[in-house]
């Protein structure tokens, strides 16, 4: 179903949740590689190296000339794409990969949900269109506090179990950087340069723009650990396909369609909370790790409740606003 010619709210939420399932593979595979002492620099860089041919092939298959168009656009004025790609992809994924060495997949995935709160706080400064509401969506931030509580419980559970506070900052600080960079890079490209481009083309352009950053990271990885192993190459391809292509395109499509309505956009971004659930299940089934503790499960429950509350409250308010506008007209 559609609302005003756009995909329905429920379809956008479904796309966001499906994206979170594919995103969760990143946390699981990154932890798997970390446990194998693989270089985090290569793990991060290889994902985006593999995304270039995958996205290029996808654009070519569409047959709409988007590959040629986006290549020309980036080639003509590469600076904004380098900035957007470095921030939205580089400063997002490099810290995320680094953090995998300091906690289980579900802890990294749970702490990453800070991006919901940070995205809401940055909302007024990331929009340029005066026709769109730019006030901070305080009601969504109140709901986000439930998610923040869940994240706190996850951290406390992990620390109380390991009795190692020294591992908290190397996990939290990189994830704070990643949680800020991801919405900033995504929305900056939407608001300033790429709103007229399709989702695949925009993602491809940002990936191209991020390549100088990833080349530097790859050189760093080579100097520290030599060339990547075969297993790291294979798992990096899986991450590139599942998280880098499928999940990113689903999430960018959903945020693009919800962009004109800040409350719905906040709800779509909140679907990323489901990543922690999928990451916990995947860590148990794929990596053979034990289930999170009771306190951690309560934290995961808070995140899920926050997600549901976020979605329901955001769905009601736009409809009420819409009905008021129709009445006043």
Automatic annotation (TrEMBL):
Protein name: Multidrug resistance efflux transporter family protein
Membrane-crossing segments per the record: 9-29, 41-61, 81-100, 106-126, 138-159, 165-184, 204-223, 235-254, 266-288, 294-312
A matching Pfam family: EmrE
Domain of life: Bacteria
Keyword Membrane appears in the UniProt entry: yes
UniProtKB keywords: Membrane, Transmembrane, Transmembrane helix
